[in-house]
Design goal:
By secondary structure, the protein is α+β, with helices and mostly antiparallel strands. The protein is built from five helices and nine strands. The radius of gyration is 19 Å and the shape is elongated.
Length: about 190
């Protein structure tokens, strides 16, 4: 498996470097991604440090499109301004999304070792998703929620409620950042 793994890993790292150069990589995830990729038996595939999103939803998730998204905490006035520019009749949902991390491991033993480490750090959702042709691991944070806030251009909740929800979404981003830092620190030792 060695040379096959080395070629696969090199290809993934090259793709990451290209995506980073184009600004397509979530900056908040880069320190953790770098720490994981420092291990020659692991390589990242995709990642997101978590985000706050407004989704325009028609019939279901497959028909959803992003109206706006933020990877940093947002102040309420900026959020409200964006919300007021929404002109569609489709329902609009506010989502607080957790971090998600996809990692390939050279072996099931390496995957198990990685998963044991992140579980000790408090990651509750994650596991091996695929064994062939590569061992594929997915980790997902638990700080999330989703709720409808507009329907037919009409607000479904008050501004006071929305302020509280945006504060909770910002808090979730902070919790995601702390978990990513704990993982980065542990992997860098």
């Amino acid at each position: 498996m060695g040379s096959d793994w080395a070629l696969f890993r090199k290809s993934k790292l090259s793709s990451l470097e290209e995506a980073t150069g184009k600004g397509l990589v979530d900056e908040e995830a880069i320190p953790l991604v770098s720490a994981i990729n420092a291990n020659p038996s692991l390589v990242t595939s995709s990642s997101c440090a978590g985000r706050i999103a407004l989704l325009s939803v028609d019939e279901g998730k497959a028909d959803a499109t992003f109206f706006a998204k933020w990877h940093q905490p947002i102040n309420f006035s900026e959020f409200k301004k964006k919300l007021e520019s929404y002109k569609s009749e489709k329902p609009l949902w506010l989502r607080s999304e957790p971090f998600i991390l996809h990692v390939f491991a050279e072996s099931t033993e390496e995957a198990d070792s990685f998963l044991q480490l992140v579980r000790k750090l408090g990651v509750k959702r994650g596991g091996i998703q695929q064994l062939t042709p590569r061992v594929f691991i997915e980790l997902i944070g638990t700080n999330s929620f989703s709720l409808p806030i507009y329907s037919g251009k009409k607000p479904l909740v008050s501004d006071e409620y929305l302020q509280q929800v945006v504060a909770l979404a910002n808090d979730n981003l902070e919790k995601n950042a702390k978990m990513l830092e704990r993982m980065r620190s542990a992997l860098s030792k």
